[in-house]
Amino acid sequence: xxxxxxxxxxxxxxxxEETAEDVVSTAFxxxxxxxxxxxxxxxxxxxxxxxxxxxxxxIDVLRQLQQSVHIDYWDNISDE
Length: 80
What we know:
Layout: H1 3-14, H2 17-33, H3 35-39, H4 43-75
Helix pairs in contact: 1-2, 1-4, 2-4
């Protein structure tokens, strides 16, 4: 029901459709892991909680991508 909404949120953070799809998949796994806590919340709070999971997962992926760019950059510097 919220898949497209979550994907848009993630895309606005990671700026890549493919990465956003991966993030949403990861977020759904995290949501399923916490379904007992989430299912007790009223509808709007449940959606907000899930959006928070998507945002945090997107930010985590963005940080990982930025760190790998920095590592790749240092690997390409010669010893000269």
